[in-house]
């Protein structure tokens, strides 16, 4: 599958328990609800959308970035119903440029999951599907993730999936709201 074919229509993925699909405006309320949970937002470099309308705009921007071949934004839902509520997201993006760059720059992966679904293997199952898809359909050499050192669960999950810890990047990013400089652990999976 060429990159042009890949971005012709959104690549929905299915696992034993999950559907990973394109999000639309009808998902805004769910997205807003879980981003406002302090258990989620404490691991972000922003506060999440401040309203359902802002969540709608966020989803629209993700879909525009998909059309521009700069982002693969999946909504994670339980079961096989195509309109099940979104309980999490997984975003894959090149660190620079677009998926059309050849050779492709490393890609970064980011994800969130509603807190009530933590420790049930849901994100592990979803990430396995996304990583497998990315390896098969995007010519990549490296998938990387940046995780706050205190986010032990996320560090453990990525290591379980084969990511290697490469080191601590001190004051690597700035929180959009607090303007505080944040340390992150860099992890990478070579493909």
From TrEMBL:
Domain N-acetyltransferase, residue spans: 18-191
Class of the enzyme per the UniProt entry, highest EC level: transferase
InterPro entries (UniProt xref): Acyl_CoA_acyltransferase (IPR016181), GNAT_dom (IPR000182), N-acetyltransferase (IPR051531)
The protein's Enzyme Commission number: 2.3.1.267
PROSITE patterns (alphabetical): GNAT
Top-level taxon of origin: Bacteria
Assigned keywords, A-Z: Acyltransferase, Transferase
GO MF term set: protein-N-terminal-alanine acetyltransferase activity
Pfam family membership, one: Acetyltransf_3
PANTHER family associated with the record: GNAT FAMILY, PUTATIVE (AFU_ORTHOLOGUE AFUA_3G00765)-RELATED-RELATED, RIBOSOMAL-PROTEIN-ALANINE ACETYLTRANSFERASE
Protein name (record): Ribosomal-protein-alanine N-acetyltransferase
Naturally occurring in which organism (per UniProt): Paenibacillus qinlingensis
């Amino acid at each position: 599958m060429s990159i042009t074919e890949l971005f012709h229509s959104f690549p929905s993925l299915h696992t034993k328990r999950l559907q990973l699909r394109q999000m639309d405006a009808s998902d805004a309320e769910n997205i807003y609800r879980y981003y406002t949970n302090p258990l989620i937002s404490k691991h972000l470099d922003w506060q999440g959308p401040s309203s359902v309308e802002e969540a709608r705009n966020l989803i629209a921007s993700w879909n525009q970035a998909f059309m521009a071949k700069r982002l693969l934004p999946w909504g994670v839902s339980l079961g096989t119903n195509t309109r099940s509520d979104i309980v999490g997201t997984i975003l894959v993006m090149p660190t620079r440029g677009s998926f059309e760059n050849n050779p492709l720059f490393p890609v970064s992966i980011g994800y969130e999951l509603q807190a009530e679904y933590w420790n049930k293997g849901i994100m592990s199952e979803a990430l396995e599907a996304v990583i497998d898809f990315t390896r098969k359909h995007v010519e990549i050499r490296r998938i990387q993730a940046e995780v706050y050192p205190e986010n032990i669960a996320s560090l453990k999950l990525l290591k379980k999936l084969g990511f290697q810890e490469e080191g601590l990047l001190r004051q690597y990013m700035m929180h959009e709201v607090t303007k505080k400089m944040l340390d992150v652990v860099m992890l990478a999976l070579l493909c």
